[in-house]
Amino acid sequence: MMLDLDDRLDRIYENILDYEAKQVAELVKSEVEAGTDLKIILDDALIAAMDEVGDLFAEGELFVPEMLMAANAMKAGMEILRPLLSESDVPSAGKVVIGTVHRDIHDIGKNLVGMMLEGGGFEVIDLGVNVAPAEFVEAAAKHSPDIIGMSALLTTTMPNMPKTIDALHKADFKGKIIVGGAPVTLEFAETIGSDSYAPDASVAVSLAREMLGID
Ligand code: B12
Description:
The protein contains nine helices and five strands. The protein has helices spanning about 5-15, 20-35, 40-60, 65-85, 110-120, 135-145, 160-170, 185-190, 200-210, and strands at about 95-100, 125, 145-150, 175-180, 195. Strand 1, helix 5 (about 110-120) and strand 2 (about 125) form a beta-alpha-beta unit. It has a five-stranded parallel beta sheet, sandwiched between helices. It starts with a helix and ends with a helix. It has two domains: about 5-85, Methyltransferase, Methionine Synthase (B12-binding Domains), Chain A, domain 1 (Orthogonal Bundle), CATH 1.10.1240; about 95-210, Rossmann fold, CATH 3.40.50. By secondary structure, the chain is α/β, with parallel strands linked by helices. InterPro entries: Cbl-bd_cap (IPR003759), Cobalamin-bd (IPR006158), Cobalamin-bd_sf (IPR036724), Met_Synthase/Corrinoid (IPR050554), Meth_synthase_dom (IPR036594).
């Protein structure tokens, strides 16, 4: 006997919270084959589970390794949906270009932010690490993102954030800018003219939504 839709979506949700990437991929695949609306799978199973992970992280119930495992499980489901979503008309929450600034190769936090944003329904273009200001500018022109996110983990690479912001402003970038990374503070973000700062990936998703006026 087949479970009803809510129970099947709940199974995907629970498997994300149990970090079962393989199970998530299989369940999402059979849901697609059953003809379930892609947006329902995305919103009610994948994004709902990542919202829960974000809340648990914010409450101190989950830590970075668990959040990464859950994000990986969600990603396994996203990989099934992504090619189908790009063909369909599910609206993306917005487009985000993200990268680690010049001369900095730390990417765990940036990847986590990217995955959580994807889980939150955003289209994410990841420029990788050691991204020079000119590369951010080039990506801004190419992709016209709603938001550009920058990560820095070294006090020596933090000054590359204002350099990148200046270059973006000179190039007339009209979108929003968000910065983060362990040494970055709200105060620093404010002095360099960033629109926003998030201390972790779950706050990054809520701020990205807020900046674009999505509830
Ligand atoms: C792992 C690590 C490495 C790995 C990186 C592997 C990788 N693929 O990323 C390796 C070994 C390569 C490395 C190299 C170096 N590292 Co290192 N590294 C770390 C370590 C231990 C953990 C960083 C991490 O991944 N944390 C976990 C993630 C999840 O947290 P996070 O990055 O802070 O991200 C969260 C938030 O900050 C936020 N966030 C992050 N990015 C963004 C972006 C946006 C837009 C938003 C909104 C939010 C956001 O959300 C994330 C998720 O919640 C830290 C110590 C530490 N505790 O931070 C040192 C640390 C950052 N490294 C340090 C140093 C010195 C180096 C080296 C210079 C060492 C050397 N002498 O070679 C090199 C630098 C190389 C380079 N040019 O970048 C120092 C920096 C000191 C300083 N104040 O500048 C630290 C603090 C260690 C120390 N205590 O000395 N490192």
